[in-house]
Amino acid sequence: MSSKTINIIVKIWRQNGPHAKGSFEDHALKDISTGSSFLEMLDVMNEALANKGIEPIAFDHDCREGICGMCGAVVNGTAHGPEKETTLCQLHMRSFKDGDTIIIEPFRATGFPVVKDLIVDRSALDRIIQAGGFVSVNSGSPQDANSILIPQHIAEQAMDAAACIGCGACAAACPNAAPMLFIGAKISQLALLPQGQHEAKTRAVNMVSCMDENGFGNCGNERVCENVCPKGISIRHIARMNREYLKGSFFRDE
To answer: What pTM did the predictor assign?
Structure first.
């Protein structure tokens, strides 16, 4: 079955760098296939701009399969767009109607300085992960697969947390620009498993301290992060992060 086409107006943010003054540009696009992805629509627009001698829109992308977390942008006020549990690359143009005006802008948070147009520097998330430290694993001869018994419901919770792709949508959507859903997920996937217990005393404290140093805010229980997370990460992981932080604070004060 052939897809329909729509005509849209794209109102997109242009900015040459973190200290440059940015502004929105309007571009009219015709005959956009509703079967195309959002990033494919941007590809079509960039091709048209290049043909006119205009510099194309800079935007992040890599796998285009909802795995890498590179493609974040705010669409009509919502990180990753209107579809729940969907990355920007998985968003399709059938989510929009003929004649719609689509407003596209970069993730906005102090910890995410704009590099160019829709591209932001999300290396602060890498620094937060690094602050969490390593995970101790006993080396030697291979152990039997069942030598470390982990209850199924615990393993599933850890796997749910590990689904976080580090896209930064939680911080971009939060009124306080808090990446605590991201941090909570990363802490949970280690705190729930025996392999991550050795560094648990300092992990949460160090990661939250790094978050503060990079200009992010703190959680205000708005739950917007949970609503825009493309992997459906629960804010229950923030609660676990707070418990781990509290326990780590006692060890820090010793």
So the answer is: 0.90
